[in-house]
Design a protein that fits this description.
Helix content: 25-40%
CATH class of the domain at 58-122: Alpha Beta
Shape: elongated
Number of helices: 4
Pfam family, one: ExbD
Strand order of the largest sheet: 3-2-1-4-5
Family: Belongs to the ExbD/TolR family.
Subcellular location: Cell membrane
Number of strands: 5
GO molecular function: transmembrane transporter activity
Keywords: Cell membrane, Membrane, Protein transport, Transmembrane, Transmembrane helix, Transport
Distance between the termini: 83 Å
Radius of gyration: 31 Å
Strand content: 15-25%
């Protein structure tokens, strides 16, 4: 008598399929945006008509490199920092003009830090596109 070997059942490659689907899911999560879109009935505030004003306690830097604080011109960064209290020296805010050369902004920041400002922050405009 001859015994026949039982044929092993073929398994489906489901693990490979699950891996591919998982990788596609990760790809689309990374490639797409996960943020909820804005509600179409929402109306955003428009600030086009507002006059631009520097925030309080901010050093305004003009395109020509001139600096002013609360409407008064300042001689230089060292004089400005010397006029501040210890508390105000912790964080100095700068509002630079858009056309100010980057080299002038870096130089001013360096001067403020060497004069005693602990931290220098740039105040910029952010818009929704």
């Amino acid at each position: 008598m001859r015994k026949f070997a039982k044929a092993k059942p073929q398994r489906e490659p489901t693990i490979a399929l699950i891996n591919i689907v998982f990788l596609m899911l990760v790809f689309f999560m990374v490639a797409g945006t996960l943020a909820q879109p804005l509600d179409p009935s929402l109306t955003l505030v428009e600030t086009r008509e507002l006059d631009g004003q520097a925030p309080p306690n901010a050093l305004v830097v003009y395109p020509d490199g001139r600096i002013s604080f609360e409407g008064e011109d300042q001689a230089d960064a060292a004089t400005f920092v010397a006029s501040l209290s210890e508390e105000d020296r912790e964080t100095v805010r700068i509002v630079p003009d858009r056309t100010l050369p980057a080299a002038a902004l870096v130089s001013l920041t360096r001067d403020l830090r060497s004069a005693g400002a602990q931290r220098v922050m740039l105040v910029t405009k952010r818009a929704l596109e």
